[in-house]
UniProtKB/TrEMBL annotation:
SUPFAM superfamilies: FAD/NAD(P)-binding domain. This is Tryptophan halogenase. It holds the Pfam family FAD_binding_3. It comes from the Bacteria. Residues 6-207 form the FAD-binding domain. It comes from Salinisphaera hydrothermalis (strain C41B8).
Amino acid sequence: MNTEQTDIAVIGAGPAGATIAALLADRGWRVTVLERSHFPRFAVGESLLPRCMDALADAGMLHAVEHAGYQIKRGVTFTENDRDTSFTFDDQFTPGWSWTWQVLRADFDHRLALEAEHRGATLRFGQTVESVDFETPGAPRLSVVGDDDTRTALTARFVCDASGFARVLPRLLGLDRTGSAPPRAALFTHVADHIDAPDYQRDRIVIGIHPSQPEVWYWLIGLAGGRASVGVIGPPEWLHGLDGTPVERLQQAIGEEPRLARLLADAEFDSRVGQTENYAYDIAALHGRDYALLGNAAGFVDPIFSSGVTIALESALRAVGPIDAQLRGSDVDWDTEFEAPIRAGQRVFTSFISAWYRGTLKHVFFNPTPDTTIRTMLSSILAGYVWDTSNPYVAVPERRLETLCRLCAPAA
Ligand SMILES: Cc1cc2nc3c(=O)[nH]c(=O)nc-3n(C[C@H](O)[C@H](O)[C@H](O)COP(=O)(O)OP(=O)(O)OC[C@H]3O[C@@H](n4cnc5c(N)ncnc54)[C@H](O)[C@@H]3O)c2cc1C
């Protein structure tokens, strides 16, 4: 067993882990990132939000990804039964970025991780954190096992859990509240899309709604180089009811949505189809005496509004000040400085996600006579500006949205 010491141990080198590692290294701390896989590795979640661009710029990470040649994203198109409605990010309530990217996450995450290393963090790939002992205050001890079975006891002063869906600390500490959301499942892959339809705008994510299953929806995310990410989400029993191999089930599901079926008629399904189920969970507390939970390790509801990477980057930005201050001996109000803003952002997305699955939000999106100011406010939410409390749909999301959904509902 090797024994090692560091100031901050980061579990996971995804967007949250790489960003917090870079920011803490900037402040002069010894940072050790433990990542169980080897990068580049596949990750789902290609559609970014314009708010990510602010976060990448604030974290000094933008230059690491801006020349990667990713597909530009300028908006969102919702489609149901061959009618479309689009939101573009150039007409927003909140001043901000009018575009972002649709990225190959394997490449995006790898570039961010290399940037963290360049800024001084130590990255260890093929290293899985198995457990963390918090018994000694100020000296958490991580048990780490390498691909080659070597074992390391790493003592840190603070632990950042950025382990994504694995949520290492919530599971070890009993903070995981899985089952708080209705069960949903997903099938997804990358294809060579061969789309040449003149009405397809590659710079928008397309969200399709199943014609007869209101809880089933699809994404089509155009990537660079003629490739695309496609996926379907729905109740597990509906996805399990489709026939055949995962790729056949995904193709069958796509065949049931007229617009996507046409767009993807010539697509080559040349990559492995991924599956995930019951991906939603809530976490009881986002920080403790010697740790903080970042990104997906701090909770995940649903990918419908592409909020995951935005929350991951924001949580890293919000955590760096409190961690730095705590390690320098200052008192930190973690609830105010870290947990409250992260939960506030999650809450806005969650209220929109709930309205989406209730089936009421689509009436707002497809409203034929929309109020233009309200539409700019909704655009800003879709762009990820969920911390701008001058937007009424951020300040009081549930009540405002419920009223709007009621006003836009079709007459009974
Ligand atoms: C179907 C689906 C579609 C999605 N689409 C989008 C989208 O379009 N846009 C978007 O923004 N988000 C999307 N998301 C969410 C997005 O994938 C995540 O929110 C995002 O990846 C979170 O980043 P992270 O840094 O928190 O975690 P991750 O990117 O998951 O990184 C966590 C890292 O921790 C490592 N790790 C795990 N356990 C251990 C361990 N024990 N020891 C060491 N390392 C460990 C993992 O290998 C991984 O590399 C989607 C999610 C799903 C399920």
